[in-house]
Amino acid sequence: MTKYKARLEPTLEVQLTLTQLRCVVKSLSIGTDQLAKKIQRHGDNSRADLAYTEFQALLEAKQELESVLNAGLAGDDISWSND
Predict the structure, then answer these.
(1) What is the mean pLDDT of each run of 10 residues along the chain (83 residues)?
(2) Of 28, 30, 39, 61, which is least packed with CB atoms within 10 Å of its CB?
(3) What is the pLDDT of residue 33?
(4) For residues 7 and 14, what is the distance between their CA atoms, to the nearest angstrom?
(5) Rounded distance between C-alpha atoms, residue 69 and residue 43, angstroms
(6) Distance between CA atoms of 16 and 30, rounded to whole angstroms?
(7) How many other C-beta atoms lie within 10 A of the C-beta of residue 25?
(8) DSSP letter, residue 33
(9) Burial level of 36, CB count in 10 A (0-12/13-18/19+)?
């Protein structure tokens, strides 16, 4: 499998409610599970390599958003707004 390498890409800032963030994390979890199964089905070929690269990026995003969600639920020092 090809090792995932993060590219230098623009960073975006997004505002979500905790409910929206929970939904995004759940969707990312479903997506990573589906890609893991796809990788197992394809074995070791170019399609699996592409899926693995996508899996790594998706997993990284999921982990980042989970940490934000956990901080929000714990009430840690994060920016809150009441718009």
Answers:
(1) 63 91 96 91 81 92 95 72 46
(2) 30
(3) 95
(4) 20
(5) 34
(6) 19
(7) 19
(8) H
(9) middle
State the Cα–Cα distance between residues 28 and 48, nearest whole angstrom: 19
Report yes or no: 79 and 63 within 8 Å, Cβ to Cβ.
no
Q: Count Cα neighbours of 39 within 13 Å in the Cβ-side half-sphere.
A: 16
DSSP code for 26? H
Q: Return d(Cα 16, Cα 48) in angstroms, integer.
A: 33
Query: Scanning the structure block, which residue is given the tokens 């714990």?
Result: 74
Length of the chain: 83
Contacts 24+ apart (CB under 8 A), 48-52: 48/1, 49/1, 49/2, 52/1, 52/2, 52/4
Backbone φ and ψ for 37, nearest 5 degrees, come out as -65, -40
Residue written as tokens 């994060």? Answer: 78
